User: Fold Malonyl CoA-acyl carrier protein transacylase from Methylobacterium trifolii.
Amino acid sequence: MTLALLCSGQGAQHPGMFELTAGHPAAQGVFASATPLLGRDPRDLVRAGGPILHENRTGQILCCIAALSAWSVVAEAAPARMIVAGYSIGDLAAWGCAGRFSVDTVLELAAARAEAMDAASGPGHGLAGLRGLPQARAAALAQAHGCHVAILNAPDSVVVGGATPALEALCRDATAAGAQRAVLLPVHTPSHTPLLARAAERFRAQLARTPLETPPRPAPRLLSGLDGAAVFDVAAGLDKLSRQIASTIDWAACLEGVAEFGATDVVELGPGHALATMASAAMPGVRVHALEDFRSAAGVAAWIAKD
Assistant:
């Protein structure tokens, strides 16, 4: 078996996102490390629900908690050959799963990343998802509305960022142009666009002060969430980790990198199923699940052991 781990981005946080990991013994350290950053136990926070789950700082920390706690479950049954990639904030979580950063470091960096992004963008911005138009057509519409392509998901699926009124107008025009889907996403920051150039520089400085860990053996191979290239040079990888805040992410290339590594099985660590859905479309014949498809940690281990 060659197992690929996909670390989710923001947007799918929900009250049940820790149901599988909340009581798992190996995940307790993750929840304990996150509590001071959030001001309360993250399990209690998500169960309460509400808009706070989608606030930028809270959302980025929660997504990293989800990936790291899920990784603690998967790691107990994981094979020797693994690869990991992360989508947006999931890129940072992937560094933790690959053993390059400690749990505490990942969560502290998630908070710092979100704070830098909020300071750089201010209110009234966000992201929109467009599906059903060629990338070139979507990019032209984005430019016409003063927006920017943020993420390339597939040949007919992109995410764009900009000011909220411009995104609303863009969605109307995209629908009129034949888009199957054109909606504002529950993210209130124009991530992965030049609007966040100052945030990328601030986060770069933060990373330069951050201690690295020596990955254990075996550890998943780490792909850059910016372009899907394997991270062999740590300095170059850290540069991409900061640059992706203000640069277009090529998630389609990340999935190509996973396929080229020979992944036979893929699990999205969560929250949500979006990456699993994209992986299924990009890699037909590969077994793909989201962690949230399972009812228990034992079920995850049994699925991994089937191959």
Q: What stands out?
A: The chain has two domains: 3-121+194-305, 125-184. Residues 116 and 199 are 5 Å apart (CA to CA). The beta strands are 3-7, 82-86, 125-131, 148-154, 157-163, 181-184, 221-222, 249-250, 265-270, 287-290.
